Structures are given as structure tokens and as C-alpha cells.
Amino acid sequence: MKQFKLNVNTKSQKYKIIIGKGLYNNLPKLLAKNSISFNKCLIVVDSKIKKKIISSILIKFKKKNKIVYFFKASEKNKNQKNVDKILNVLLKNNFQRNDCLISVGGGITGDVSGFASSIYKRGIKFINVPTTLLAQVDSSIGGKTGVNTPYGKNLIGSFYQPNLVISDTNFLKTLPKRELICGYAEIFKHSLILNKKFFTFLNKNASKILKVESPFIEKSIIESCKIKKKIVELDENEKNIRKMLNFGHTFAHSYEATLNYNKKLNHGEAVLLGIISAITFSLKIKLLSKIDYIKIKDHFIKYNLPRKVSNYFTKKDLHKLILFMKKDKKNTSNLINLILIKKVGKLKLNLNFKDGKIYDFFKKELIN
Predict the structure, then answer these.
(1) Which of 2, 63, 273, 290 is the most buried (most CB within 10 A)?
(2) What SS3 class is residue 127?
(3) pLDDT at residue number 1
(4) Contact 282, 341 (CB under 8 A)
(5) What are phi and psi of 126, to 5 degrees?
């Protein structure tokens, strides 16, 4: 099956993203072909992956140089305690810097594994094998790693680029629709921030993408990766334009934290609610035209994407929502920093607002 390769060139690391079908059937061979060598590897596997798939991956590695660690991936388990468990396995087995850690799972597994890789002996080889659509188009690219705390999401972490990313679209066929929508949220976000042509493509083909139909699923992953790659190469450590990748996320992270990361709302659904919130606020302050606002909102309606904040929150949640927004890592003062939209394909960065303005917006526009 044809493979698509993208080269990511950041100041700290150069690596490939390989996209295709059936890639996980012989990972050791693929690693060797891409100059990834090691004496020992720790394979951190999301325990939710089907046993048949896990077996077909693990059987290809030699027994003497592999150790397997099963991780129960969830936002609540994305914490320092579980990072420490991975570090203890590496320490107990005396892993060296030229050995590697391979993450096989979604974004949470990748974030936790990547963070452990970045701090173990100040850096061990890290291979990311994302198994969800969300991870394949977003979290596996760009080197953001980290964990959650009671104070908010991803507040402890590091920038640590992988040595290789292997995205097998066969994994996606095992995912429920809700999980596919979760990944689609980031694909949709990428189109809004930088590529109007891609937005038009999604507007025509989203249903086919959500059904994992070829070549639509491959094209959406590739185009999404190209957008993120371009931004990460220009601003690896999120000093400037990389902040645009957080479009909708200041709202989204607050939504997740307010619900204590429960299953009522997953990350992608929160991002979609965050996008709706951001475009509505952009319209409210006359940054976004009514025409573009309707164009974006119609996409939500057409494909039945989560869009009603009031389905998840009431007025009693307002203070907590604002509190988490004030703790967002993009803030540089007591003001709340938002990434907003001027039109499809063009954003406005670093707009700061008093919490009272955001509170009134929630109360009047989003939560009735």
C-alpha cells in the first residue's frame, strides 16, 4: 500500500511522519528502514487497543530487547503519577539514551510517553505510533508533551520532538464514530486557521472522512499534518504563531477541566464547542463577519457536530469556567488571552480580555 511521507524540520529535531495502511504489521522493519536503532525498547501500549492488534505488533519484536507496559489511557490518568510508573520501568531495566520508548496509542498515551521520554536521562529516543484520528492529525506532531493537574490541563510538560511518527489508517477502522468526530475536530480547526481551500474540501467530504473512506481520510490527514508541520517549523516552542493551533482551546480546556475530564465530554467535542465559542465571540466583537460566521456554523449543523455549550453547562458553572480560563498557559497577565478568527483561513492572535467580559459573553450568548 502506498505510503505518504512528510519531513518535519525543527531546530531541535528532524523527523519523518509516515502515513499509510498496514504499517503496524512490521514496525521493527519500518524503524530499521528509517535509521532507528536501539538495544532495548519500552513499548507503552494503550490497553484499550484490541488484543489482536497488540499481538500482531508485539510478535514482530525480539523478546530479548522489548519490554511492554500497558497504560490505561484517560484524562484522569494523564498525570505525573503515571509518568513516574513509566520512568520506574526505564530505571529498573537500565535503559540508556540510545535506547527508545515507543508509544502505541492515542494522544494521551503519546503525551505521557513523550513526557517520560523527554525527562528520562534528559532525553531518550521517542517513536510515536498514534492510533486515533486525533493523535494522527494533531498531538503526534510538534513535540508537545505533558500531563494534567488539578489546576488545569497540560500545565506540566515539555517540548520534545519524536524521532519518527508512524500513522497507520487501519487503526481508524476500529474507532467508534464519537472518537472519529474527536479527531475531525482538529482537522476542521486546521482548515479554519490556515487553509480556506481545505475548509471547502471538508465541507463537501466530511461524511466520507468520518466513515474512514479512501482517499478522503488519507487526504484529510495529510493536509492536516502539512498545516501543523508548517506552523511548528516556524515556531517550535510556541512563542508566536504556533499559538494559532490553540484556536478554540482556551474555551475547550476550560470545558474539560470544569467537568473534571469526565466521559460526558471528550477532548475533540470540547474543541468543537471551543470553536463555536470562539467564532461567536469573534462575531460579538465584530472581528468576524456574519457571512463567515454562518458559513462555519452551517458546517456544524450539516454534519451534526457538537455545538451547544448549554447542553453541558449551566449558569452555576460560570465562575469555574472563568477560573480555568484565567489559568490558561497562554495568559501573560490577569487578562484572558484568546485566539480569535477574522475569516476562514485567517486568525487574530494575542487578544486579551477582562474576565468580566468573558463572563457576560457566557451568560448572554452561550449558557441560557
Answers:
(1) 273
(2) strand
(3) 55
(4) yes
(5) -130, 125
215: preceding bond cis by omega (within 30 degrees): yes
CB atoms within 10 A of CB 204: 9
Answer positive or negative: Cα dihedral of 272, 278, 283, 289: negative
DSSP summary character for residue 315: G
What does residue 128 show for φ and ψ, rounded to 5 degrees? Answer: -110, 125
For the chain, which domains are there?
Answer: 4-174 (3.40.50.1970), 177-211+213-366 (1.20.1090.10)
Per-residue pLDDT at 331: 86
How far from the centroid of its chain's Cα atoms is residue 358's Cα?
25
Taking 80 as the threshold, does the pLDDT of residue 368 lie above it? no
Angle of CA points 133, 126, 87, to nearest 5°: 110
**Is the pTM above the cut of 0.90?**
yes
167 close to 3: Cβ distance less than 8 angstroms: no
- Position 333 scores a pLDDT of 87
Cα 30–141–58 angle (5° rounding)? 35
